[in-house]
Write a structure and sequence with these properties.
Blueprint: E1 2-6, E2 21-25, H1 30-39, E3 44-48, H2 51-59, E4 66-70, H3 91-94, E5 98-102, H4 106-112, E6 118-122, H5 127-137, E7 141-145, H6 154-168, E8 173-174, H7 179-188, H8 192-198, H9 200-207, H10 211-218, E9 227-231, E10 239-245
Parallel strand pairs: 1-7, 1-8, 2-6, 2-7, 3-5, 4-5
Antiparallel strand pairs: 3-10, 6-9, 9-10
Length: 248
């Protein structure tokens, strides 16, 4: 079982994911929001690479239990019921709902990973559940970090390093691509929240008065931590569907 980390989706090499499992992180904030939504009863989350595609997908959804969620430059577009703030994905807001979602970085990273044999999304809150499931699969893993506006995101690298260390404890082999993430963990594990506030994504959120989102995403409270899998329909290459996975 070998673990690789890719700092940006654009760095994924042709055939790098074939036959392997991918885990996608956009800690601030898309995958943190998705894990929260699924934890609180969302039926599924359909992810798109653009706001326009999300609008169209929602318009084509005949269900009365569908809603638009997501962001552009950290802010919910007009007509979107929710943005990308994890604490807003409450049971009252999302239980039983299908969410049509597009974000600046995270949803694109998920779609860029579709050539893997299986794709999961994760946050700090479901990290132990994801690690346990990956250990049971005993497959090579590529951790895909979404980054922030085309640049590596320290918070994604930090949590990628945390996951790599968890898997190493189960005798996984860490590739050289993990080294920078491991250094970030070593340097900042004593005060994760302060580190997240210094990253480009964290600073952008704090400037908008969204420090509570940074606090939420830095927390590793995993009282209700589902494994979230992404399913892809070959007939719909522009989208993927995030669901809770039943794990024995």
């Amino acid at each position: 079982m070998r673990i690789d980390i890719v700092d940006l989706p654009i760095q994924i090499l042709p055939a790098q994911l074939h036959g392997k499992v991918a885990v996608v992180f956009d800690i601030l904030r898309a995958t943190s929001s998705m894990v929260q939504a699924v934890s609180n009863g969302a039926r599924n989350i359909i992810v798109y690479s653009s706001i326009e595609e999300a609008r169209q997908g929602h318009a084509n959804d005949p269900s009365l239990h569908a809603m638009l969620v997501g962001e552009i430059a950290c802010i919910a577009p007009d007509g979107f019921r929710l943005g990308n703030s994890p604490p807003t994905f409450t049971p009252e807001a999302v239980k039983g709902m299908t969410l049509h979602m597009s974000t600046t970085n995270g949803t694109k990273a998920i779609l860029a990973s579709r050539s893997a044999s299986a794709v999961f999304i994760a946050s700090r809150r479901n990290l132990p559940a994801i690690a346990s499931h990956l250990m049971s699969l005993a497959r090579d893993v590529v951790i895909v970090c979404a980054g922030t506006n085309g640049k590596p995101a320290g918070e994604d690298q930090f949590v990628a390093g945390e996951l790599a260390l968890m898997l190493q404890q189960s005798s996984a082999t860490l590739a050289p691509s993990c080294e920078s993430a491991l250094l970030i963990v070593k340097e900042h594990e004593a005060d994760v929240l302060s580190f997240f506030r210094t990253t480009a994504g964290g600073q952008a959120l704090c400037r908008l008065g969204l420090d509570f989102d940074v606090q939420f995403c830095a927390s590793n409270d995993n009282a209700n931590s589902p494994v979230c899998v992404v399913e892809f329909d070959p007939q719909s290459p522009a989208s993927g569907t995030v669901r809770r996975m039943n794990v024995d």
